[in-house]
Amino acid sequence: MNAPRPRPQPRPWYRTTSRRRLLRRPRLPESRGARALCAALVSAATIAALAWLWYGTPYPQSDPDRIAVRLKDQAQRAYDEAALPGRPEVELGRVETGTCYYRGLRSVAHIDEGRSDVRSFDLDWQVRAVPEDVARSGLQRMRARLEREGWTLVDTGVDDRPGFRFRNPAGEDDVQQVEHVDARWYRETGTYAVSVYAGCGKLPDGFYEYTWPERDWVPEAVPGAPVTPPAARSATPR
Fold first, then answer.
1. Which of 2, 134, 154, 182 could in theory staple to 195 by disulfide, Cβ–Cβ 3.0 to 4.6 A?
2. Residues with Cβ < 8 Å from 225, sequence gap 6 or more?
3. Coil, strand or helix: which one is 138?
4. Looking at the predicted structure, is the pLDDT value of residue 21 above 50?
């Protein structure tokens, strides 16, 4: 009786595929124009990467007038919450610009050198000779309001300088927003001080801080309420 003949097994694909096909290289564009386009794209990408490394992330464009309105709004709300007897005038009360620095590897060539076309904004005001109970009540009202609005507490004061600093989460990616609010009371002089700050942004062409109409600020007076001048400066440093 004849034994059954074994069935032929299929050969693996790598044995049936021609060696030339396996070793075939990817075909590059054959036309001179296509090759030139590829080279141009690679060159542009390289230049963009090097520019980003050198200049860093660009600063967003700022709108000084819009920023000033928001800084003044926070300053006014803090003044109202302080409820200072006699609604005294404030010292400072002016929107100032602050230094911003170069980014990326370019900063190495400009160490501690500020940019003239990029500035931050802040508004500070203070009143001296504020009693402790008045100051603590004002700080408590201000803190409660910031917490209700979703601000994040990032710093607290010490015994002789009670106060706090809050960060606005909504302002992290928007240079037009108020980024930080800081309030303190200094026991040595009784100084009640508030500072509001907006981050660095690129100034519009033609902006000049010292002739800027929106620069100055004074708290709004309550109709019929007396206004007292700021207390005399103390010789004791703050």
1. 182
2. 86, 87
3. helix
4. yes
Instruction: Judge contact between 67 and 122, C-beta under 8 A.
Output: no
Query: What residues have CB less than 8 Å from 40, skipping those under 6 apart?
Result: none
The pLDDT of residue 28 is 52
pLDDT above 90: residue 141: yes
Alpha-helical segments (H) within the chain: 13-16, 19-22, 32-55, 64-82, 106-109, 132-148
List the beta bridge partners of residue 98.
120
Task: Characterize 193-222 residue by residue with b for buried, 16 or more Cβ atoms within 10 angstroms of its Cβ, and e for exposed.
Answer: bbbbbbbbbbbeeeeeeeeeeeeebebeee
Give the whole-angstrom CA distance, residue 168 versus residue 137: 22
For residue 235, give every residue at least 6 positions away whose Cβ sits within 8 Å of its Cβ, in sequence order, or none: none
- Considering all CA atoms of the chain, what is the largest pairwise distance in Å, rounded to the nearest integer? 127
Which residues are paired to 201 by β-bridges?
A: 119
CA 175/CA 58 separation, integer angstroms: 12
CB contact at 8 A, 168 and 73 = no
For residues 159 and 14, give the distance between their C-alpha atoms in angstroms, rounded to a whole number.
80
Partnered with residue 61 across adjacent β-strands are 202
Instruction: Please report the pLDDT score of residue 58 as a whole number.
Output: 86
